[in-house]
Design goal:
4 domains, nucleotide-binding, mitochondrion, binds adenosine-5'-triphosphate, AAA_lid_BCS1, single chain, extended, alpha/beta, Rossmann fold, 21 helices, 13 strands, ATPase_AAA_CS, transmembrane helix
Length: 568
């Protein structure tokens, strides 16, 4: 019987090792010889190989010449602005692009959570949360978080002030750095780049206007690629906290803010350099937890219009090199808030070995295995990246644990102690919480009553209404106006009286509350927590204060009791 595909040994015309078919088979993982007749294949293979070779060469040549052509076109006939994703401007440009009409029209786009929330370290800290109702459940807030659309990587065209602009979005671009990044290229025809600068300026201004009267907070973001250094991520922009809401001795607050203001004055840097003093300023805020150290830092940053970069040295993922790269990436003028600098390794690393061991024994419960060393921290405080108007604020709950080198003058220029709430602080917290209580009454005075009759329209206002053209000597009109004026006077008087009564009542309640609360036992954060339980009920807050103090003390006794038995 004749076999359709005879064995290899039976036919001398089968492809040998070097035949075109065997070469083709090396590229195509199918045993072609078993499928196609040998003579036909032998004839076709050289053509197929030639075709593959030519098409590959053509594709490579096209890419090369296209690149050369566009490069030359850009060089001689176009103006181009390039923005790299590691630059702060990239974020601003992307926000601007997302708002443009062409972004909504494009059919191939990248969908993300609203652009600023992309940079949030966690959903819980996203900017959108700030603008949403705080009481809404988590899933509801997530559901309402806006999406944003930007054109996908590739070439896009749009019109700006009547001119065609090309936007090229290049993803995963390997430049000179170690890690790929995204690049945006804006190009226009012509050798005058003014229009591109206008686009950049507009995007920047729009973006920054959103931050007006807000404090922009940055926190470190873990490396996006393995081995890459951590970077700063914009977490949120919250309305600036008025300094008056931080309960602290007025003198201390003023001293702190005035010192920073003076440091940031344009002439100060020159003054420092003329005297050979490193231009930097450090502050140490110390005291028990929840006494307002971070709050004061945020309020000062908001008041001075500076961005704040918050970093906890207790982070286990932070190393000396990570800390150095974070400091390298800081903008020239900003506030850097370093929290928890009493972390064991940092605080004790310069102390004698046995003393360290002794302390470590005592503090085993609170020990944190941080990878930032004291020398690493001192390097960044003193290093090149530390200059240029940066305000360094260190906070700690245990100033006694700090190495003297860390807080010597030159590194720490001012120390502010925060204490548990005394009488004044307790009263201040109460007033802050309830000063606007029944605000609607006070508002009535500021807003004049609605002019339903139209009689309050200023006489000079051009109007065609019959009333306005009526002669002011009309006795009926005069009487009516007088009546309205009288009503307004009465209303203002009533509101003022009501306000006086309210203020008196508030003062009574404040005095009662301050008497009930023990002095310097609770932190402002604890008192605030209690008052929040009675958000709109000042009377109730005063009534229940005593019970709360007793239950708090009872809970504390129980805790000590258990600790005592545990150690026995
Ligand atoms: N002095 C204060 N004046 C007004 N509010 C305060 C004060 N202290 C604490 N609070 C309130 O308590 C909360 C915690 O305050 P904050 O984070 O500033 O304390 P902290 O001293 O930095 O705490 P920690 O040492 O634990 O970091 C905030 O909501 C803040 O409003």
């Amino acid at each position: 019987m004749e076999t359709l595909f005879p064995p290899a040994t039976a036919n001398s015309s089968l492809p040998t090792q070097s035949s075109p078919l065997s070469i083709l088979e090396a590229f195509i993982p199918i045993h072609l010889s078993s499928l196609i007749s040998h003579s036909a294949l032998d004839n076709a293979v050289p053509h197929i190989l030639t075709f593959l070779f030519i098409s590959t060469a053509a594709a490579t040549g096209w890419t090369y010449w296209y690149d050369q052509f566009t490069r030359l076109l850009r060089l001689f006939f176009m103006s181009t602005a390039e923005i790299h994703s590691r630059d702060e401007l990239y974020e601003q440009m992307m926000a601007w692009i997302a708002e443009q009409e062409f972004s909504t029209r494009t059919r191939y786009f990248v969908a993300t959570m609203a652009f600023r929330s992309l940079f949030a370290e966690s959903v819980g800290e996203s900017e959108e949360e700030e603008t949403q109702e705080p009481d809404a459940p988590y899933w509801e807030r997530n559901r309402r978080a806006p999406l944003q659309f930007t054109p996908a990587p590739g070439l896009h065209f749009f019109k700006y002030k009547g001119k065609t602009v090309t936007l090229e979005r290049i993803a995963n671009h390997w430049g000179r750095g170690w890690f790929p990044q995204e690049i945006l290229k804006f190009s226009i025809m012509g050798r005058e780049p003014q229009l591109l600068k206008e686009i950049l300026k507009e995007a920047r201004e729009k973006y920054l206007m959103k931050d007006k009267s807000k404090t922009v907070v940055h926190r470190p973001k873990g490396p996006t690629e393995v081995g890459s250094p951590p970077t700063w991520a914009r977490c949120l922009a919250r309305p600036s906290r008025p300094l008056s809401t931080v309960v602290l001795e007025q003198k201390q607050k003023e001293m702190f803010v005035d010192d920073i203001k003076d440091y940031l004055e344009p002439d100060t840097q020159k003054w420092y350099s003329e005297r050979g003093i490193p231009y930097r300023r450090g502050y140490l805020l110390h005291g028990p937890p929840g006494t307002g150290k971070s709050s004061l830092s945020f309020a000062a940053a908001g008041l001075l219009g500076l961005k704040i970069y918050v970093l906890s040295l207790a982070s286990k993922t932070l190393s000396d090199s990570g800390l150095a790269s974070l400091f390298d990436a800081l903008p020239p003028r900003c506030v850097v808030l370093l929290e928890d600098i009493d972390t064991i390794n940092i605080a004790q690393s310069r102390k004698p070995v046995d003393a360290t061991a002794e302390t470590a024994k005592k503090d085993t419960s609170t020990e944190v295995d941080t990878r930032v060393s004291l020398s690493g921290l001192l390097n960044v405080i003193d290093g090149v990246a530390s200059s240029e108007g940066r305000v360094l604020i260190l906070t700690t709950n245990h100033p006694e644990k700090l190495d003297a080198a860390l807080i010597r003058p030159g590194r720490v220029d001012m120390k502010i102690e925060f204490k548990l709430a005394g009488e004044e602080a307790i009263a201040g917290l109460f007033v802050r919480m309830y000063k606007d209580y029944n605000y609607s009454t006070a508002q009535a005075e500021e807003e004049p009553p609605t002019d339903t009759s139209g009689l309050l329209t200023p006489p000079c206002t051009p109007t065609t209404s019959a009333r306005a053209t009526t002669s002011p000597t009309d006795p009926a009109l005069i009487a009516e106006r007088e009546l309205i004026r009288q009503r307004r006077r009465n209303e203002a008087k009533r509101v003022a009286e009501e306000r006086a009564v309210k203020e008196k009542r508030l003062l009574e309640l404040v005095a009662k509350f301050a008497q009930t609360m023990p002095q310097e036992v609770f932190s402002p954060a604890e008192i605030q927590g209690y008052l929040l339980q009675h958000k709109n009920q000042p009377e109730r807050a005063v009534e229940c204060a005593e019970k709360w103090v007793i239950s708090f003390r009872l809970a504390l006794c129980v805790l000590y009791f258990f600790i005592f038995f545990f150690y026995l």
